[in-house]
Amino acid sequence: MKRQLASCLLLLVALLAPWATSAAETRHITIAAAADLHDAMGKLVEAYRHDHPDAVLDVVFGASGTLLTQIEQGAPFELFFSADSQYPQRLVDHGKAGGTPVPYALGHLVMWSASIDMRGVQVADLAQPRFGRIAIANPQHAPYGKRAEQALRAAGIWDQVQPRLVFGENIAQTVQFAQSGNAQVGLVAESLVLASPGKGSYAAVPSSLHEPLRQSFVLTKRGAGNALAEDFARYVQQPPARAILARYGFSLPDGAGTGPQP
Amino acid sequence: MTLLSDQDLQALGLTLRLAGVVTLLLLLLGMPLAWWLTHTDSRWRRPIAAVVALPLVLPPTVLGFYLLMLLGPDGVVGRAVAALGLEALPFSFRGLVVASMLYSLPFVVQPLHNAFEAIGHRPLEVAACLGAGPVDRFVTVALPLAWPGVVTAVVLGFAHTVGEFGVVLMIGGNIPGQTRVLSMRIYDHVQAGEYHQANVLSLCLLVVSFAALLAMSLLRPRGYVRD
């Protein structure tokens, strides 16, 4: 009986041992990233790992609001790359951040379609029924959705297009609604359109029609003091990383680089 | 502070309407299907029984993904629907009805199938000897004997549709009054950090589900559960 108990304990220790070491491991972080970063963040991590082969960076993508909720509820993320600046600020306000928000990019909203030639199309044109169903991200919790609503309102066509709107859970699902052709037009992130070049056509939504998509990241409480998390945060603000972000259609926010360090 | 906003009530009403329509249609479809599964000798019986049970094990996202592809403008069903001059199914109430019927199918068919099987052939043969026709046998003999199974099918079909989330997320499009059901609304509240509203709505869902299951056990004749 005693021997059985002892072997059981031994087994338990053996099973938990890898856990214990990974918890103490500082060369591994998990990054929570807005859905519009889907391809850009993959490239950033790849480039970073080129110089730091022993570093392990996992990325979890989702709507910024979803990720914020998860972090507030204790999700094990060291860095939070939001598609706006408001959510990282909220993390700071609630005492769940390990630094101040750092603007890293300015996102762009475009009108994309698989079936209709969108070149030269103005936002106000979307009121015409020929544009069919229009997919936007949910304005309630997705930054791109909020900007899409603002743009449609500013163009004075919100009430007219309302019956033709469908709402994606995040910007990636909104792209999927449009790419599958179920929605004829999607108001989506340029970064995701540029990630699959050659498909469909798109026109920019003038940034004068909505608040800027100023995107910030922040170190979470869990990430504070984590050398890898802090190093990656520095890397993202340097020219090579900036070049990658630019390739995916992000521009640099004013004051980026001179902003506060995490 | 009001407990439920107009939009919350709209989502609640829509959800109950969806579950009602789906349950009714599934009963009409499930009865003959369960009857056939019980009495046929066809070699297709087992594959078809497996297909009926598929939604039990498939993640709703798989179902939602295939439906989005099939029902979309490039999909087989989507093209057929367009050729008939009908409105496309994704992002519409009718689309949700079709998707929910698939999703809840086993929850209706399996209790019916079990109930029909429990009756066996004997009562039906006796009724036939006494001169009852096929319809008569089904309505006056099989259906009353299978009643507890019918109740279970209705309650499970209804409750399962009320709680549906994954499929709605994939093909619903979250349109107020058309496809924004209760589970989506709760999800949106949680994402927006509106925990109070999420709490109230979740409680509604909990109460509906509990009441349905309680009704099921109360409606069953005593002793049936134990046999």
From TrEMBL, chain A:
Keywords: Metal-binding, Molybdenum, Signal
Binding-site list for molybdate: 64, 171
Entry-linked SUPFAM superfamilies: Periplasmic binding protein-like II (SSF53850)
InterPro entries assigned: AvModA-like_subst-bd (IPR044084), ModA (IPR005950), ModA/WtpA (IPR050682)
A Gene Ontology BP annotation from the UniProt entry: molybdate ion transport
An example molecular function term from Gene Ontology annotations: metal ion binding
Leader sequence segment: 1-23
Pfam families, per the entry: SBP_bac_11
Top-level lineage group: Bacteria
Subunit architecture: The complex is composed of two ATP-binding proteins (ModC), two transmembrane proteins (ModB) and a solute-binding protein (ModA).
Similarity-based family: Belongs to the bacterial solute-binding protein ModA family.
Protein's UniProt name: Molybdate ABC transporter substrate-binding protein
Source species: Dyella jiangningensis
From TrEMBL, chain B:
Location in or out of the cell: Cell inner membrane; Cell membrane
SUPFAM superfamilies registered for this protein in UniProt: MetI-like
Keyword list, A-Z: Cell inner membrane, Cell membrane, Membrane, Molybdenum, Transmembrane, Transmembrane helix, Transport
Secreted found in the keyword field: no
One Gene Ontology cellular component annotation held by this UniProt entry: plasma membrane
Free-text function comment from the UniProt entry: Part of the binding-protein-dependent transport system for molybdenum; probably responsible for the translocation of the substrate across the membrane.
Superkingdom of origin: Bacteria
Organism whose genome encodes this protein: Dyella jiangningensis
Pfam families found in the cross-reference section: BPD_transp_1
Topology within the bilayer: Multi-pass membrane protein
Similarity annotation: Belongs to the binding-protein-dependent transport system permease family. CysTW subfamily.
PANTHER family reported for this sequence: MOLYBDENUM TRANSPORT SYSTEM PERMEASE, MOLYBDENUM TRANSPORT SYSTEM PERMEASE PROTEIN MODB
Gene Ontology MF: a single term: molybdate ion transmembrane transporter activity
Sequence ranges assigned to domain ABC transmembrane type-1 in this UniProt record: 12-216
Ranges annotated as spanning the membrane: 12-36, 48-71, 198-219
InterPro entries: MetI-like (IPR000515), MetI-like_sf (IPR035906), ModB_ABC (IPR011867)
Entry protein name: Molybdenum transport system permease
